Prior knowledge:
The structure is a single chain. The protein is built from four helices and seven strands. Strands 1, 2, 3, 4, 5, 6 and 7 form a seven-stranded mixed β-sheet that branches. 31% of the residues lie in helices and 22% in strands. Strand 2, helix 2 and strand 3 (89-95) form a beta-alpha-beta unit. The relative contact order is 0.17. Residues 1-23 have low confidence and may be disordered.
Amino acid sequence: MCLCFGLVSLVVLCAGVGAAAQTAPVPAPTCAELHLVPAVRECADVQVVPISSLGIGELAPGAGDRFAQSDLSHWYSERVQGELVGNGRVIWFGRADTKDAMEILASHHLTFDPAMHDEGYIIVPDKRNGIDVIAETSAGLFYGAQTVKQLIRGSGKDAMLLVPTIRDWPAMAHRGLSDDWSRGPMPPSTTSP
């Protein structure tokens, strides 16, 4: 009788722990745990937002800005197996000189430094549990969209949007990659000298 009671207690205890584990919210990672490439210059306050439906919007559309939005939309449909819809949580794109963007930046106490002008961007959480991407140029919006791609984790109904506050701009005026094969490892020789 004692063994039977102990086994029933163990089953009830395990079921309770399993149920608690399923309803527990996902803890937000730190900025360092985001592992963004390239690493962003400033990051703070990461939040986790589950995505049931994710929309894409624009604060002030521009011809060059639409590319960043369509690139993100195309990537999202392939990666997350879903469509960016017009309702639900929203990723907003906008230029820093528009009234809406200036209000968002002021509410978060953020500014654009001169070094951020050409390719810099700011990503902030918005009050709709979405995210705002703000830049002064189309290139900045494009790089902001590339960072947003890395902030969407998972796929389908399990997808999550990580929402930090980010200020980012290039560390150098020109980007490049140097691949010098002349100093790399040599393949093993099949003939002896």
